[in-house]
Design brief:
Blueprint: H1 6-16, H2 22-42, H3 52-67, H4 71-77, H5 83-95, H6 116-121, H7 127-130
Helix pairs in contact: 2-3
């Protein structure tokens, strides 16, 4: 398989339909690198495949580091409203040859990840307001 540059991959994805902003793809690429580094640190430098659930957690921590209390707003501006959107982005990247997947990887691995309010809003609320944030109110 011919290696595809990230810019070529983004162009191909955007040509099929700009459901998500380019920045969302760039962010997921950076979050994947962040996740791979975290996993390598905890597994004595060994790099291995990242599962969908591991990537979701890496995305969550990376978004909080990068955007703080604005994380949910930034992601939504890019068209990302729930964890399933990250799965679509990842598999769009797989479809154009920029990422690889194993036979066990499924788009459904990203389903039911975390609630965006719980993940990106609640950490910045005062303790008195955190209880009022209902986890059932998914965004």
């Amino acid at each position: 398989m011919q290696e595809v540059s990230f810019e070529q991959a983004l162009d191909a994805i955007q040509a099929k339909g700009p459901r998500y902003h380019r920045e969302a793809y760039l962010f997921v690429r950076e979050a994947l690198e962040h996740t791979q580094k975290s996993i390598a640190q905890s597994s004595r430098g060994r790099v291995r495949h990242v599962t969908g659930q591991e990537l979701l957690e890496g995305i969550r921590t990376f978004a909080l580091q990068q955007f703080g209390p604005m994380a949910k707003t930034v992601l939504e501006e890019w068209g990302v409203h729930r964890c399933e959107d990250f799965g679509v982005i990842v598999f769009n990247m797989v479809a154009v040859g920029w990422l690889a997947k194993t036979s066990k990887d499924r788009r459904s691995d990203f389903a039911g990840g975390y609630d965006f309010n719980e993940a990106f809003v609640k950490p910045f609320l005062p303790k008195s307001k955190q209880a009022a944030l209902a986890p059932a109110a998914k965004s």
